[in-house]
Amino acid sequence: MDRDLPAASASRRDLLRMIGAGAGITAMHHAMSSLGVAGESPYRGPIDLQGAPPGASVLILGAGIAGLSAALELRNAGYQVQVLEFNTRPGGRTWTLRGGDSYTELGGFTQQCGFAKDQYINPGPWRIPHHHRGLLSYCKRLGVPLEPFVQINYNAYLHSSRAFGGKPRRYREIKADYQGYVAELLAKATRQNALDAAVSQEDRDRLLESLRDWGALDKNDAYAANEVSSNRRGYRREPGGGIGGRPLASSPDTRSEILDSRLWKALSRADAFDMQPSLFQPVGGMDQITAAFGRELAPVIRYGAKVVDIRQDDHGVSVLYEDTHAPGSRLKARADWCLCTIPLPILAQIPMNVGAALASAIAAVPYAASVKVGLQFNRRFWEEDEQIYGGITYTDMPISNIAYPNTGFHGGGKAVLLGAYIFGPSAMEFTAMTPQERIEKALDYGSQIHPQYRREFDNGIAVAWHRSPFTMGCFSAWSSEARERHYDDLCAIDGRIALAGEHVSFLNGWQEGAVTSALDAIGRLHQRATGQGARA
Amino acid sequence: MNTTRRRAWPSLTLLGLAAAVSAPVLGNDADGAALAGLAADSGAATYAHICQGCHMPRGQGAVGAGRYPALAGNPALVSWQYVALTVLNGKNGMPAFGRQNKQGTSPAFLSVYLSDAQVAAVVNYVRTHFGNHWRSTATADQVAALPHP
Known about the structure:
The complex is a heterodimer.
Chain A: H1 12-34, E1 57-61, H2 65-76, E2 80-84, E3 97-98, E4 102-104, E5 110-112, E6 120-121, E7 128-129, H3 133-141, E8 146-149, E9 157-159, E10 169-170, H4 171-191, H5 201-215, H6 227-233, E11 235-237, E12 248-249, H7 255-261, E13 279-282, H8 287-297, E14 301-302, E15 305-312, E16 317-323, E17 331-335, E18 337-340, H9 344-347, H10 356-362, E19 370-377, H11 381-384, E20 391-395, E21 401-404, E22 415-423, H12 424-431, H13 435-447, H14 453-456, E23 457-464, H15 480-491, E24 497-499, H16 511-532
Parallel strand pairs in A: 1-2, 1-18, 2-14, 9-20, 18-24
Antiparallel strand pairs in A: 3-6, 4-5, 7-13, 8-13, 9-10, 11-12, 15-16, 16-17, 19-22, 19-23, 20-21
Chain B: H1 10-15, H2 43-55, E1 62-63, E2 67-68, H3 80-89, H4 116-126, H5 140-144
Antiparallel strand pairs in B: 1-2
Helix pairs in contact in B: 2-4, 3-4
């Protein structure tokens, strides 16, 4: 039953390659942390805004997570609050597409969502880390039920079009084999005293013991086809009951196959701070959060309001906006203070009298390209045929992710999975396509992992964030250089105007960045309002 | 500065590209991503695969809460330098496509770079299509002489 196994001789070069691979991942995480991608939420509990000046007012631009959380707190603190929102729904990028929805992207391409009842995709944010305490506190306060978001599924696939003949491997196979071979090499080096003075004799024994445990090595410190490794990577025949219940061990892929596949790159993903389980999703779609905010704040939100001019003077802020149902119309809103959450690519085009520092900051931040494609199939073949219940398959093909529904397991009807979640060059290429072309490409690529795709496909919908009329991009992609030069200016209150949103945070692309930036901004606005008198 | 690993991508046949586009491996690659595979002299291909995502297939731009400027009939295109500088350095949320001279300035997995030849080609393309008929043209060397990010 055993395949030929690699020769057990561990070379120093192999070891260095292994360690180098790990170091690369660590270096990437350091880089991501410095870019703010992996930062921690500074949320420290509900904001306390005591002593709002009687009659003081705040105009909030944008009813996404930042605008809504700010509106709720300011209203509760006694401020007169008005919110202007371009869309005809609350939420902004916090958004869910379901059957019956219609979406027209920039360029005029309209899609009708044909999903079955209870099926949906979240084109924007779709997972909530357990340490995003600000957002989670609003879910709790607003009574939004949560369920687990499956970040790691050991039975989902890792796939490279250039490895293993293009055949996907299960996550558990790659993880066990990679870990097993690293342990084997390190154990060999340890036994040969190659680690020199770095480990004492006592530590050496502990290290060997831990490597055997961590890597599923046999009593000779080898990673091999046997019961121990199969208990990690899976069996050739799984253990069962009765006659024929005896398990058969599987054979690991070879060390060089595992290394050259580069599939180990996916293993560290869930080690990143913002991907560590537990993660959550709202039951029924991410927009359940903003729908709850919207119900709470209904009297103060004006929808279909396109801001065209923002002007402050010594006494307040005036905003001109167009009723999007009456093109060319000009309406005016005014308040003592303004919290502006409009995404920067749009805000950069709106006339606004702020200082040069803030104006430069607003124009300095590019927005990331990103595309998601939702695909509805006639049945849950990923569950029925492949025992994949939720979680994510990663591939080097342009679709990048296939994410399976984390709910409704064993549901008998049609079901939707996320057939593409793309950043970078491929996202730009997908954005340049028509929605129908994006869906076709997602089917082409996905078929290479799931051959059932074409036979079971029902309908799909594709969202390219640079074609989104209300953001013109997915999220702020701060460069370290722009961050150094402009971030503090973007945070600073300019006269009577403060900015908030994921772009005013080190949690770019996360709802928690929007929440914590909004709470920080209104805290400082409140200080000003109480310090100098709102109607000074 | 071009860190692309040149290799065959089966996907690109589907996309109709001649050669390689480096995409993030498993969406998690810290290497920069360059569109080296787009033929250097094909402004049309660069436009169709990158620019038209926002500026639209006929250069007509689009209007929502904000707008993507039309390239068709846009008098600002009189200056190839202006167009090239915008492509290289970005503007108002538009990413910078110029090869970066400073290491680590952008989140690499989100970035796309064009060579100076590609920038020249796409600048010349947009200035001679969509009803535009500007005569002057840019060369890769001229683009190389402009400020890059």
